[in-house]
């Protein structure tokens, strides 16, 4: 599963992710491009469960507990800001039709 974490303190968050273990998840950083951290997560769980586990682990850190960030899935190479929409609906929207 490909995810993107977008946040203001992305360098600190990336350093945290590289040095910490996540419960039942194998998380690997594939790319860091300001202010985004692209993640490859190996799991059988749904996006919402993975998102909750990653956020919960990061928020345990005293400094990062005040950091503002959000995690989104990747849909056909684009950041999926509307993960609640069906894939059929997304394919009709201009944002998802654009070339990456």
Order of helices and strands: EHEEHEEHH
Helix coverage percent of residues? 25-40%
End-to-end CA span: 18 Å
Q: List unreliable stretches of 5+ residues.
A: none
Structural class: alpha+beta
How much of the residues is beta strand, in percent?
25-35%
Strands ordered across the widest β-sheet: 2-3-1-4-5
Number of helices: 4
The pLDDT mean sits at 92
Main pleated-sheet profile: 5 strands, antiparallel
Number of strands: 5
Label the overall shape: globular
Describe the structure.
This protein is of the alpha+beta class. The protein has four helices and five strands, in the order βαββαββαα. It has helices at 10-19, 47-59, 87-90, 94-97; strands at 2-7, 26-33, 36-42, 69-75, 78-79. The chain has a five-stranded antiparallel beta sheet. A hairpin with a 2-residue loop joins β2 and β3 (36-42). The protein is globular. The chain starts with a strand and ends with a helix. The mean pLDDT is 92.
Give a short summary of the structure.
This protein is α+β, with helices and mostly antiparallel strands and 100 residues long. The protein has 4 helices and 5 strands, in the order βαββαββαα. The longest helix has 13 residues.
State the main characteristics.
alpha+beta, 100 residues
